[in-house]
Amino acid sequence: MSLPPHDERLIKALAAVIVDRPRATLKELAEAVGTSRTTLHRFYGTRDNLLKMLEAHGRNILNQIIETTCLSGATPQEALHNLIKEHLAHRELLIFIVFQSRPDFPNPKDDGARWQSYLDALDSFFLRGQCMGAFRIDITAAVFTELFIALVYGLADAERRGRAASSNSAKILGQMFLHGATPMRS
Predict the structure, then answer these.
(1) What is the 3-state secondary structure (H, E, C) of 92-107?
(2) Does residue 33 form part of some domain?
(3) Fewer CB within 10 Å: N-end or C-end of the chain?
(4) Cβ–Cβ contacts within 10 Å for residue 108, how many?
(5) Residue 110 to residue 131: CA distance in whole angstroms
């Protein structure tokens, strides 16, 4: 059984509620998102199934982001802008993924192997940007990937906690990332 694809609003709401109330029962989750326990049970069966399906949906969304942002065709700056915009469009799922992941996320030696294609795509993008002179070469592409993940996921969480306004997030992320990522000038 998969997530109901027709209701992205429900999926995002469930992801957000689970982050805020990690021990909520299926009934409490249903009440929090304005649906019935029966509906959630019909779609997901159990709370554990719901968590697994949300995580799988989150991985699918990350893969879609990589596919749709034109990482290899657009200029590095344009592709970075698209990456940020698409990640923030799914901020609830990003936060869910981070909160549901183990501390070693995304460690490819353990359960993190399922995230490897996402990491590889980001690494390749940043390496391409370095080769084109858009990003600093004194920082590895892998570190750029880690910094990007930390910035975008961290800002999405700050929004969730009321420490940042979502209206400026894309602009802030782009400026913060590019300001520190541009090549050093002598």
Answers:
(1) HHHHHHHHHCCCCCCC
(2) no
(3) C
(4) 13
(5) 31
Residue 169: other Cβ atoms inside 10 A: 20
Number of domains the chain is built from: 1
Contact 170, 84 (CB under 8 A): yes
pTM: 0.82
What is the rounded distance in angstroms from the CA atom of residue 141 to the CA atom of residue 67? 19
Q: Which domain holds residue 127?
A: 56-181
Where do runs of H (alpha helix) occur along 34-140? Answer: 37-44, 47-68, 76-89, 91-100, 116-131
**Could you give the CA distance from residue 84 to residue 71 in angstroms, rounded to a whole number?**
12
Report the run of H or E that residue 153 belongs to, with start and end. Answer: helix 141-160
CATH number at residue 172: 1.10.357.10
Place of tokens 């109901």: 4
Residue 137 lies in a domain: yes
Consecutive 10-residue averages of pLDDT for the chain (186 residues): 63 92 93 92 90 90 91 92 94 87 57 79 96 93 93 90 87 82 62
